[in-house]
Amino acid sequence: MSIALRGIGKRFGEFAAVKDIDLDVPTGALIALLGPSGCGKTTLLRIIAGLETPDEGHVLFDGRDATLWPIRDRKVGFVFQHYALFRHMSVFENVAFGLKVKPRRERPASKQIRSKVQSLLDLVQLGWAGDRYPAQLSGGQRQRVALARALAVDPDVLLLDEPFGALDSQVRHELRRWLRRLHDELHFTSIFVTHDQQEAIEVADTIVVLNRGRIEQFGVPSEVYDVPTSAFVHRFLGQVNELPVQLRGGRAYLGPIDISDSTGLGSVTDSAGGGEAHIALIRPHEIEVGAAASGWPAVVVAVRVIGPIVRLELCADGQPTNEPLEAEISRERYEGERFVVGQKVGLRFRRWQVYPTNGAAA
Amino acid sequence: MAAAETRTTGRSPALARALLIGMALLFLGLFLVLPLLTVFVQGLAKGVSAYAAAILDPTAWASVKLTLLVAAIAVPFNLVFGVAAAWAIAKFEFRGKSTLITLIDLPFAVSPVIAGLVFILLFGSHGWFGEYLKMHHIRVVFAVPGIVLATIFVTFPFIARELIPVMQAQGKDDEETALSLGASGWQTFWRVTLPNIRWGLMYGVLLCNARAMGEFGAVSVVSGHIRGLTNTMPLHVEILYNEYNYAAAFAVASLLALLALLTLAGKSFLEWRQPELRHTARPGRDRTRREIT
User: Fold this and answer.
1) Model confidence over A62-109: pLDDT tens digits?
2) Contacts of A88 in chain B (CB under 8 A)
3) Rounded to whole angstroms, how far apart are CA atoms A241 and A324?
4) Of A82, A98, A166, the CB nearest to B181
5) CB-side exposure of A130: number of CA atoms within 13 Å?
6) Which side of chain B, N or C, has fewer Cβ within a 10 Å radius?
7) Would you say the C-alpha torsion A245, A247, A252, A258 has a positive or negative sign?
8) C-alpha of B194 from chain center
9) What's the CA gap between B100 and B85, in Å, rounded?
């Protein structure tokens, strides 16, 4: 089922949770609503589910106006961060719930219910846990029960509110991959909310970045990551180095130093062209660390080996010493070149982006 | 050095524990167990036959029946009201919510005597509805309806008060999940909400029942003390006592105390049978446990 939002707005008292949201979710998509807490992502998900009614705008399901449909008519599966398993019911009863509450003429025979629940439990790799109670399961297992329960009623849309937020990182990683596989197998439309950019990039086909109740950017993960349209998105999706720069004649100056040589200024955006004070954002892995004469002179002040990558802290000429730049290089390169603290290097930026300072404050 | 330290830190809590337990037991014995025992001892002071005679006295029996009748009406009434009020307060946002919470507490705040007087003012022969009631030959004050009304008023908060924190802590996730799975509101209530609150509800009902049977002040004002007709057990005890009929007074009192003890025993039995569920009925605890695992 495809979902479309048209001009959705919702206020809680004085606070506008979401404003003027337009979004199209094609059938079978797996979309992440990404943003910091309070950005309106959960509100938006709840509006789609029918748990909240928008003050403005329309929710369309397959082109039909579903804005006022009650949740039970929407055929959505909703998964909560804290699982919301019925604790007085066994795992089996939990998964069977949606089937057992159907009106008598639609309700499958108990034998069919049993086999369907069992196959769902097998699907979530919990075939053995039917008699257990939620309190006897781990967090990851509970969330899988919650997913099986949501899938039992054959929803057209699966909505997940921070589904892995309460789990530890190992389990979270496993469940993400598992969710992705499940989605690819079953082809339902899924929307999940997360504040974890890693999770969004890893799982989703499309990322919707939300900030202060509005959509900041919408696109495939690599595009949103590589070509952010605002300083907010740039900062939110991964690490950045921030350099206050002045633009003069299409070149970027840090104080008196012209740093634009290192790139040829390929990515100074048009909107950034006119003003004076700007901010340049550069991701750590896009700083090229070379020989002393090869670029902006800098000194290595710290080296940290983090598994496959090595993070160098660099104090560049003209930069305050308490705000070193961070660069990331591969472990292999580090093994070859052995940067040491105190070494003089030259920096070039492979890709960087300049934003007006006022925009950067957002 | 380390050993000495452990010994001191080990000894003083033990001492403090013994002291605190001793104090608690002493106070319990002095102020609760001893008076309660006295009730039974006094009741049986003139022998078992006198005790039986006092209890089997028709007016005494009438008071027992009236007490049970009043509780049987007031408790279900407040059960329905308490669940509805707690549901509204815990699951919805609306204007005047805090006022409603305060109003629910009102019967705790005002003296029961005032509660009784209110009903006299409303339904008494000179009260607001007095004329109307007289015309239609309906007796409220100095009759069973008045006693029931006063009891309902006084026991109003018990169930709602017990349920509100339970329901607030549980939040709306379970209900919203049930709805998203296609359950109707009614199914959601019976299959999800009610099982989640059942222990809090049971508690509230027991407390409400204990108070409904034991209420004196408000009932005393509206009852009119008509022997064999509008006397509940607490009122009957007082009358017997005022007539210097101590043995009978204490006999009926012991029966009332026995009903209260039965209520408490019922509560303990429920807790003993379902210790696990008693815990899971409090999701505050459950949630912290979930986050740890």
Assistant:
1) 989 999 998 888 889 999 988 899 999 999 999 999 999 998 888 999
2) 195-196, 277, 280
3) 9
4) A98
5) 16
6) N
7) negative
8) 20
9) 9
Secondary structure letter of residue A135 according to DSSP: G
**Min Cα separation B193/chain A (Å):** 9
Token pair listed for B273: 């049978």
Closest CA to A231 of A106, A361, A338: A361
β-pairing, A277-282 vs A353-356, is: antiparallel
| Residue B159 to residue B82: CA distance in whole angstroms | 5
Query: CB-based contact (8 Å) between A221 and chain B?
Result: no
Q: A98–B182: do the CB atoms touch at under 8 Å?
A: yes
Q: Are the beta carbons of B286 and A86 separated by less than 8 Å?
A: no
Q: CA-based angle A246:A250:A255, to the nearest 5?
A: 25
**Sign of the alpha-carbon torsion through B69, B72, B78, B80:** negative
Nearest to B176 among A78, A87, A149 (CB): A78
Please state the separation of Cα A224 from the chain's center in Å: 10
Report residue A329 as tokens. Answer: 């290089």
CB contact under 8 A, B196 and A88: yes
**Nearest partner of A296 among A229, A349, A243, A337, judged by Cα:** A349
Any B CB within 8 A of A166 CB: yes
Q: Mind telling me how many Å the CA of A8 is from chain B's nearest CA?
A: 21
Residue A275 has phi, psi (to 5 degrees) of -65, -175
Evaluate whether A100 touches B183 at the Cβ level (below 8 Å).
no
Q: Which residues contact B156 (CB under 8 A, 6 or more apart)?
A: B78, B81, B104, B106, B107
Gap between the Cα atoms of A40 and A286, Å rounded: 31
Chain B residue with CA closest to A48: the answer is B180
Could you say which DSSP state residue B45 is in? T
Interval B268-286 mean pLDDT = 55
Indicate the Cα dihedral angle A87, A92, A95, A98, nearest 10°: -90
Q: What is the pLDDT of residue A43?
A: 93
Q: What share of chain A is helix, strand, coil (3-state, %, to 5)?
A: 30, 35, 35
**CB of A93 within 8 A of CB of A121?**
no
Whether B124 contacts B145, CB under 8 Å: no
Burial class (CB in 10 A: 0-12, 13-18, 19+), B189: middle
State the smallest CA–CA distance between residue A153 and chain B in angstroms: 7
Nearest chain A residue to B178 by CA distance is: A98
**CA pair distance A58, A71, nearest whole angstrom:** 15
- Name beta bridge partners: A248: A251
CA dist B187 and B179 (Å) reads 9
Q: Is B55 within 8 Å of B65 (Cβ atoms)?
A: no
Would you say A114 and A170 are in contact if contact means Cβ atoms under 8 Å apart? no
Reported pTM: 0.77
Q: Please indicate if any CB of chain B lies within 8 Å of the CB of A220.
A: no
Which residues in chain B have Cβ-Cβ distances shorter than 8 Å to A97? 178, 181, 183, 191
Of B192, B280, B290, which is closest to A139 when you measure between CB atoms?
B290
**Helix H or strand E segment including B190:** none
Structure confidence by residue, pLDDT tens digits, B224-267: 887 778 888 899 888 888 888 888 888 888 888 888 888 888 87
For chain B, say whether A107 makes contact (Cβ under 8 Å). no
Q: Which residues of A touch B289 (CB under 8 A)?
A: 135
Q: Which residues of chain A have pLDDT under 70?
A: 255-257, 259-276, 358-362
Name the amino acid, one letter, at A149. Answer: R
